[in-house]
Design goal:
The chain is an alpha+beta fold. Helices cover about 15% and strands about 35% of the residues.
Amino acid sequence: MVRLEFSAVLAYEVMAPGCDFIFNIQAAYTPRQLVMHESLGLSQPVATSSYTDPATQSRFLRLHAEPGNFTLSYTAVVDLVHYEAQPGSLPELSPLALPGEVLPYLYPSRYCQSDRLLALANSQFGHLPLGYGRARAICDWVQQHVSFQGNTSNSTTSAIDTLIERVGVCRDFAHLMIALCRAASLPARMASGMDYGADPALGPPDFHAYVEVYLGDRWYLFDPSGTAIPMGFVRFATGRDAADIAFATIFGSVRAAQPQVHIEAVPNSMGQLVLPQHVNYALSTDGP
């Protein structure tokens, strides 16, 4: 069991007449991601309302901030009890056999235009044996053909843009892998959260976007950017693409500062410090 402690601070200058926010930076409650402690701080005395999506466990926090400085701070301690599986044991399911709630993740979406990548997916991955290995091959292909480079994309950059430009940040890698998976009939979704183990040379710590692919009977973790350690991913939200899982959706005018985030491994309930590491088996924080 891995125990991670993390914090996030979001700071804004809110313009008149104020601004509505929907935040999604709280750790999801799942049977394998246990929130042991959490604390939310707001710099203005504002009313909040919360909603948890029953399908994804994504947690939405809604509030209205008045003009002036507004800061949200969130800290949590999370235990990750990963489900582990041997890659060779994980089959693909046909669309007819998939659970109904998985079907939306086969379709094209705003940033993942899988319908435009059918020929590429078939030529590169159509000949491979069905199963986990195909998802891994797509992940590796994206990592090999796209370079990680900050400030090379924006909120409109799609999977097609990344395929053409061959540079991007974590969300761009994730969009391209998801689009190629769906084009190969593999259900894939985007996850947002915190990552452990990123190289400081890549820039200041930030939120992370990664991929989950449905194989067998659950969603498994993949990191096409290759910048962090999947065993150390804390999940906030999942969705079809970045449009569904923004850490802050803003209805009004603000000036935003760079998010301040920090994560570290701490001793678990047995007093053991378990550091996330790269492994050669499949990992999931989904399901029982």
